[in-house]
Write a structure and sequence with these properties.
Organism: Streptomyces genisteinicus
Helix content: 25-40%
Number of helices: 14
Shape: globular
Largest sheet: 8 strands, parallel, barrel
Number of strands: 14
Protein name: NtaA/DmoA family FMN-dependent monooxygenase
Mean pLDDT: 88
Structural class: alpha/beta
Keywords: Flavoprotein, FMN, Monooxygenase, Oxidoreductase
Low-confidence stretches: 431-438
CATH topology of the largest domain: TIM Barrel
Enzyme class: oxidoreductase
Strand content: 5-15%
Family: Belongs to the NtaA/SnaA/DszA monooxygenase family.
Order of helices and strands: EHEEEHEHEHHEEEHEHEHHEHHEHEHH
Radius of gyration: 22 Å
CATH architecture of the largest domain: Alpha-Beta Barrel
Length: 438
């Protein structure tokens, strides 16, 4: 009996998220370093490049968050602007993609397209833009027009923003000096951006799980940054987003799904589980548990015991108790879900927050983590992962040293970079200028 050649195994894509200012990072750990020193960015980026990752990913902070009218503790030192940091990192890395989160609500197409095209050109075709939106007037107070945008208009503006930026990049790539765009949100006429980079135009990343966000990703994104707690939830999301692509004239391989995950390694499964539990306890302190609860309930809950039961009062949907952080779209639904979980498992406030706010994590020995990641990708629950370490800047070191070699042995991860641009790393066909803008 003659058998055909064994089909190649589906390849895993990996990226690194610099944790910065959030409740993922364990600041009390003695190994935790600065989140603003350039050396921290360099260490994490070079570790990701040593691990042959596709890209390095920075979040955005447009305003210091507030809690009960005071600056949120985690924001006390602020956050550097992402494109500025990535331009500097372009000089100390060679192949690693450089992804900046930039808000499409509070920026303008020509100016942002020019900044991203400059990063793309200077890095030799390694730039990416993570498109985010906001209807938050609190954040918008930093901007001339006051920042208010109806929630329903966020993605229509973002879609037009991306289309205008792509048209501008394509005009520059075609050697056209002049540029014009007219739509519902923008009317632009001027000169094009810097010359075309080797990858044609920056990769577009989108983060969002609403129906509008999924449709926007299917129409306009090259990568979607998402989060799902189980293999089956990941597979359902994967199927839903991929099935939307044909109506936008796109193929499945045109969009990579990369959930954000944490990884906790141990010498044994029990050791890894123990470490993971301790990390979650450090991330969700008693104070942070009450803060997280107030983000859902929109009420001052400081009188409640973190080790006691959840509040029996309803959320306040119109609360301004927390500013600059995204509340649940339906706080009543979230509160009901938290209560049901708490009652089912007998959980306190802190225990409930720990269980409901954790990302999908891979916990175990390096070989177990490598096997689990390969299964997720093989079974179409993801195309890869964006790793969010709990330590800055050394949180990727163990993964790169132990898990990456095992993925390579399995034949599911590259042993060297075969291209120079981010599009080549991601396996996105062409240069990005052939497909019409969404």
């Amino acid at each position: 009996m003659t058998t055909g050649p064994t089909p190649p195994r589906k390849q895993i894509h990996l990226a690194a998220h610099f944790p910065g200012v959030n409740n993922t990072t364990v600041w009390a750990d003695p190994r935790s370093g600065s989140q603003i020193d350039f050396d921290s960015f360099v260490h994490l980026a070079r570790t990701a490049e040593r691990g042959l990752f596709d890209f390095f990913f920075l979040a955005e902070g447009l305003r210091l968050r507030e809690h009960k009218g005071r600056v949120h503790d985690l924001d006390v030192v602020g956050r550097p602007e992402s494109i500025t940091v990535l331009n500097a990192l372009a000089a100390v890395t060679d192949r690693l993609g450089l992804a900046a989160t930039v808000n499409a609500t509070f920026n303008e197409p020509w100016e942002l397209a020019r900044r991203l095209a400059s990063l793309d050109l200077l890095s030799g075709g390694r730039a990416a833009w993570n498109v985010v939106t906001s209807s938050d007037a609190f954040t918008g107070e930093n901007f001339r027009r006051g920042g208010f945008l109806d929630r329903a208009d966020r993605y229509t503006r973002a879609a037009e923003f991306v289309a205008a930026a792509r048209a501008l990049w394509d005009a520059a790539g075609a050697g056209q000096r002049s540029f014009a765009w007219s739509g519902d949100h923008f009317a632009i006429a001027g000169e094009s951006t810097p010359p075309r980079s080797p990858q044609g135009r920056p990769v577009v990343i989108q983060a969002g799980d609403s129906d509008e966000g999924r449709e926007f990703a299917a129409s306009a994104a090259d990568v979607i940054f998402t989060r799902h707690g189980t293999l089956e939830a990941g597979r359902a999301f994967y199927r839903d987003v991929k099935r939307r692509l044909p109506r936008h004239g796109r193929r499945e391989e045109d969009l990579k799904l990369m959930p954000g995950v944490t990884v906790v390694l141990g010498d044994t499964a029990a050791d890894a589980q123990e470490r993971a539990a301790e990390i979650r306890r450090q991330q969700i302190s008693p104070q942070n548990a009450i803060h997280a609860l107030e983000l859902v309930w929109g009420r001052d809950l400081s009188a409640y015991d973190p080790d006691g039961p959840l509040p029996d009062v309803d959320p306040d949907p119109d609360s301004a108790l927390v500013q600059g952080r995204v509340r649940h779209a339906d706080p009543f639904e979230a509160a009901a879900r938290w209560r049901a979980l708490s009652e089912e498992k007998g959980l306190s406030i802190r225990q409930t927050v720990i269980e409901t706010t954790s990302r999908q994590s891979f916990i175990g020995t390096p070989s177990a983590v490598a096997a689990a990641m390969a299964e997720f990708v093989e079974r179409d629950a993801a195309d890869g992962f964006i790793l969010v370490p709990h330590l800055t800047p050394g949180g990727l070191d163990g993964f790169v040293d132990t898990v990456v070699p095992l993925l390579q042995e399995r034949g599911v991860f590259r042993t060297r970079y075969t291209g120079t641009t981010l599009r080549e790393h991601l396996g996105l066909t062409g240069t990005g200028v052939e497909r019409s803008a969404a």
